[in-house]
TrEMBL record:
Organism annotation: Tenebrio molitor
Entry similarity comment: Belongs to the insect chemoreceptor superfamily. Heteromeric odorant receptor channel (TC 1.A.69) family.
Transmembrane segments: 33-51, 63-87, 249-269, 281-301
GO cellular component, one term: plasma membrane
InterPro entries, per database record: 7tm6_olfct_rcpt (IPR004117)
Superkingdom, taxonomy of origin: Eukaryota
Name of the molecule in the record: Odorant receptor
């Protein structure tokens, strides 16, 4: 049976990260790739972020304007945190990706390949939906100021501080293009960083599926002991891979949980203030869908890891264990006892990412939205 290529499904995802300077060949070092990445971040992304931070201090007394600015600022801060940990742990993540090519992580039969592909197809569906929402947000963010004739002066895609007059030409046009490029970079790479992290969780879940199938087909015979030892080694390797992935983005998960409800609530508030079927209305609709999808994929695939890891002891019981030798039975019993505690993907080992977390975030976002509506009416 041919070796399974785990990176084939996420090839486009990794290619975009590579083109954006977020996926070097081995690690970040002093070379043209790292230099160009640093140059782009320092000239496009960082100035955009700083200009919005400065602008916030000028609009603290205006709730509506502040809400229209802070949701985008929080998104960029969140993206900054994620790319920091992605770059910081790049060497470790590269080593983790190499574990996928080991023999223990390879599907053993066509049935296992089919199960793995089904999980990866689910990831691809969510990735495509997430990408479409973000592309829609970028497009409508780019054109909505041109179509919005309310107010005086020329509108930019977002409110930000500039050390020069942006109402004159060509300063206005250059600033407009500069902001669009900055937001397009942030948005599309936010999609691909998030989806890459989600894909790591999918890989963990797939490995538990493979392990469970191997345990169910554990048969009496001379090679039963060897098969059980392989299952034990496989389980240890899965835990190692999961620990690397979780620890690489532990703090990023925590920040994600903290700000997701705020971003979603603010976006929903902005959407409620838009005239239906305008460019601004479609922009905030796309942005809202993207923010919900972003958190959903984290919680869904993390929840799948928890459920599939909980299936391991049950899969062992489903094997033909009654006819195994006493020595193998003892080893299997020890393995079952060792796998009683399911695996959790957590944020700072405090909050577990699960469907319950997702529902809690949506409830909190709705509370923020209600609070903002009441404050606006008063």
């Amino acid at each position: 049976m041919d070796r399974y290529d785990w990176t084939l499904t996420i090839k486009l995802n990794l290619s975009i990260l590579k083109l954006s300077g977020l996926w070097p060949r081995d690690r970040y070092k002093i070379d043209p790739y790292t230099t160009l990445t640093a140059l782009f971040l320092l000239t496009v992304f960082i100035p955009n972020l700083l200009s919005q931070i400065i602008k916030v201090f000028f609009i603290l007394d205006d709730l509506t304007t502040l809400a229209a600015t802070i949701y985008l600022l929080l998104t960029e801060i969140l993206f900054t945190v994620k790319i920091f940990f992605l770059m910081k742990n790049m060497t470790t993540l590269k080593e983790a990706m190499k574990l996928l090519d080991t023999d223990l992580f390879q599907p053993k039969n066509p049935e296992q390949v089919a199960v793995v592909q089904l999980n990866l197809d689910s990831w691809r569906t969510i990735y495509n939906s997430f990408t479409m929402s973000c592309v829609g947000a970028i497009v409508f963010l780019s054109i909505s100021p041109l179509l919005d004739k309310s107010g005086s002066g020329k509108n930019l895609p977002s409110l930000s501080w500039s050390p020069y007059n942006t109402q004159t030409s060509p300063a206005y046009e250059l600033t407009y293009i500069y902001q669009v490029i900055g937001y397009a970079y942030t948005c599309m790479n936010h999609v691909n960083v998030d989806s890459f992290i989600a894909a790591l969780n999918v890989f963990i879940g797939c490995q538990f599926d493979i392990l469970c199938d191997n345990l169910r087909h554990l048969q009496p015979g001379d090679d039963a002991q060897e098969s059980l030892v392989k299952c034990i080694k496989h389980h240890k390797l899965i835990l190692k891979f999961a620990t690397i992935c979780n620890e690489s983005f532990n703090l990023a998960f925590f920040v994600q949980l903290l700000v997701s409800a705020t971003i979603t609530g603010l976006t929903l508030f902005q959407l409620s203030t838009m005239v239906p079927f305008t460019a601004g209305f479609f922009y905030f609709t796309s942005y809202y869908l993207a923010s919900v999808t972003q958190m959903f994929q984290y919680c869904w695939f993390s929840n799948e890891v928890h459920l599939k890891s909980a299936n391991v002891p049950c899969a062992a019981f489903e094997s033909d264990w009654t006819d195994l030798s006493l020595e193998v039975k003892k080893g299997l019993l020890f393995f079952i006892m060792r796998t009683q505690k399911p695996l959790h993907i957590s944020a700072l080992n405090v909050f577990h990412l699960s469907l319950e977390s997702f529902v809690a975030i949506l409830k909190t976002a709705w509370s923020y939205y209600t609070l903002l509506r009441q404050a606006e009416e008063e």
